[in-house]
UniProtKB/TrEMBL annotation:
Cofactor note: Binds 1 Mg(2+) ion per monomer.
Protein's organism: Pseudomonas segetis
Gene Ontology BP, a term: O antigen biosynthetic process
Domain of life the protein comes from: Bacteria
Family to which this protein belongs: Belongs to the dTDP-4-dehydrorhamnose reductase family.
Catalytic activity: dTDP-beta-L-rhamnose + NADP(+) = dTDP-4-dehydro-beta-L-rhamnose + NADPH + H(+)
One Pfam family hit: RmlD_sub_bind
Name under which the protein is recorded: dTDP-4-dehydrorhamnose reductase
The keyword Oxidoreductase belongs to this UniProt entry's keyword annotation: yes
């Protein structure tokens, strides 16, 4: 690859998957360690003034954006300021910016799949913060690719899947919504998509804009939980026997989590040639990674 690539958040689950996948193709990333205080507007300015990469993948706050159960408003506000500054720096230094986002920018009222043309109406604090991040990137840096992912699954113990598996080994009964739908997306698959986008940009293809990606075969959170349990029993025998169905409206996170979160992925297929992969095929390696670290 001719472009010099910088990866913020190389220590995150998605960052590690991207580094691992890139190494298989001799694609290397400059992945600076974050300062003890975390990335902010000042140290990002210094970093990019010194390094000036050709493209930057911003996973600096990956866990908060995609895996954390709750994030404070003040923390999101600090991240928004940093991303706005990052977009300004990318514009100034003519750096291509890859910025991840999420299905959470939609309110989930639409029963059919969301395309990139749909107007975001985020429900809660999480979705609103991501939507503001998107808007600042669009307004400031024209050479950007915004990637909205479906339900991202990684092997971190405190992440979405990790919390579910911890409950499965502790609780007598689990409840998940049987009327909440989305696209499960293993983190290795998300890394594959980012790498495919970078390869196209390396060919000077000016394919800027917003794109959706989620694993093939939309499903319910109940069916996803059942699939995870089935696979996890290869590693642990003391897991809860079954999961009870519960209505989305009765779930404690119903005010924050979109009920219908299926993403239409035609644009990224037609523009970048990226085909959705079946999320079920990614579960064995995902569970293997998880149980090797808990």
């Amino acid at each position: 690859m001719r472009m010099r690539l910088m990866l913020l958040g190389g220590g995150s689950a998605l960052g590690q998957a991207l580094i691992r996948l890139g190494a298989e193709e001799d694609i290397n990333f400059l992945a600076p360690r974050p300062p003890d205080s975390g990335w902010d507007a000042a140290n990002l300015t210094q970093l990019l003034d010194d390094t000036r990469p050709d493209a930057l993948i911003n996973l600096a706050y990956y866990f908060d954006w995609f895996q954390a159960e709750t994030v404070s408003e003040a923390r999101f506000a600090s991240q928004e300021r940093a991303v706005e500054r990052l977009a300004e720096l990318c514009k100034h230094h003519e750096i291509r910016l890859i910025q991840p986002s999420s299905y959470r920018v939609f309110d989930g009222a639409r029963a059919t799949a969301y395309s990139e043309k749909e107007e975001p109406v985020p429900l809660g604090l999480h979705g609103q913060a991501l939507w503001r991040l998107e808007q600042s990137v669009r307004a400031v840096c024209s050479r950007h690719v915004l990637l909205r992912f479906g339900w991202l699954l990684d092997s971190s113990p405190e992440g979405l899947m990790g919390r579910f598996l911890a409950r499965a080994g502790r609780d007598d009964t689990l409840y998940l919504a049987d009327d909440r739908r989305g696209n499960p997306t293993p983190v290795d698959d998300a890394a594959r998509v980012i790498l495919a986008v970078l390869k196209q940009l390396d060919c000077q293809a000016p394919l800027w804009g917003t794109y959706h990606y989620g694993g093939h075969e939309a499903t319910t959170s109940l069916a996803l939980g059942q699939a995870l349990l089935s696979e996890a029993r290869s590693f642990r025998s003391n897991l809860v026997d079954d999961i009870a169905a519960q209505a989305h409206a009765a779930r404690p996170d119903a005010a924050e989590e979109p009920q219908h979160a299926v993403l239409a992925c035609k644009k990224i297929l037609h523009t970048y040639g990226i085909k959705p992969r079946a999320w079920r095929a990614g579960l064995p390696s995902l569970l293997d990674q998880y149980y090797r670290h808990v």
